[in-house]
Amino acid sequence: MESAQSTEEKFDTAVGIVFNNWTALKLCLEHGQGGNTVDAHTKLLALLSEVKSCFAKDPNLHWSDLADLLADYLDTEFDTLLEDESENEVAAHICELFKQLAAGNDLEVTDQLTRFPVTSSIFCQQAAPAGAASLAQCVAMSASSNSNCAIPEENEQVEDVDPGWTVVKRR
């Protein structure tokens, strides 16, 4: 039943799906930039919490402010400098999904999320169901899970700048 799920749960899942399609973030996780699996999962949940906090403070958050947060977070928590500007696209998707969910356009959000190559949340290993009524199911499971499913699906060149740092370049 759709009404049983909160907008916040749906937003959590939507952000998880966007993150699971973000190659730079997935490369960070694959290369251990976030620490072990438990630490990386904790950092991902903290990033989700920061994103939600930004929208709680300002429901009209501009995508560029969110992009700055994402880039800074990857820099500080995952020792990764983004040169491909992918944080802009990720932030724009998240802002659009937030606006759609806030307006009650759950079906539009589901339609947008099913267009992504990966339709599962990064916060769990189970695929997100196609229906809007079940978008939040796998985020709820993430509270009891300490694993993530961040396995890159495409190869990107990664350049080591200094030990512990990774630079993601524009294609």
Automatic annotation (TrEMBL):
Function: May be involved in 20S pre-rRNA processing.
Domain of life: Eukaryota
Keywords, comma-separated and alphabetical: rRNA processing
Transmembrane feature ranges: none
InterPro entries on file: Pre-rRNA_process_TSR2
UniProt KW Nucleotidyltransferase keyword: no
Pfam families tied to this protein: WGG
Entry's family note: Belongs to the TSR2 family.
Protein name listed in UniProt: Pre-rRNA-processing protein TSR2 homolog
Signal peptide boundaries: none
GO BP annotations listed: rRNA processing
